[in-house]
């Protein structure tokens, strides 16, 4: 997974919770600035999901379907077109809609109640 540096606290916790619920799935994180992540994803950097706090950066990246948005558009999540495991990537994106992930996003300040 490629994620914006500003989301480190939230997504480290989300990764731990997701993996506890889905032990068959290993989530590896790469954190960087949104622009850097976009260049990495567009350049073929291995990754299944791109999470950014700047939705505009997704316009330069090939994704499966339409990116998901959270927090009134402040958080964008997309399964990358070159995903090696689009099924588990979609499972992770679906998990972000669940109560546990939403609580983590709220508790870390990404989402506001």
UniProtKB/TrEMBL annotation:
Q: What domain of life? A: Bacteria
Which InterPro entries does the UniProt entry name for this protein? ModA/WtpA
Molecular-function annotations in GO: molybdate ion binding
Q: Which GO terms describe its biological process?
A: molybdate ion transport
| Name this polypeptide is given | ABC transporter substrate-binding protein
């Amino acid at each position: 997974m490629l994620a914006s540096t500003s989301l480190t606290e939230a997504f480290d916790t989300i990764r731990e919770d997701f993996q506890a619920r889905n032990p068959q799935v290993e989530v590896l994180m790469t954190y960087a600035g949104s622009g850097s992540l976009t260049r990495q994803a567009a350049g073929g950097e291995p990754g299944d999901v791109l999470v950014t706090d700047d939705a505009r950066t997704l316009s330069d990246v090939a994704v499966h379907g339409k990116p998901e948005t959270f927090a009134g558009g402040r958080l964008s999540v997309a399964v990358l077109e070159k995903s090696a495991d689009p099924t588990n990537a979609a499972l992770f994106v679906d998990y972000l809609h669940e109560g546990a992930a939403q609580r983590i996003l709220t508790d870390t300040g990404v989402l506001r109640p």
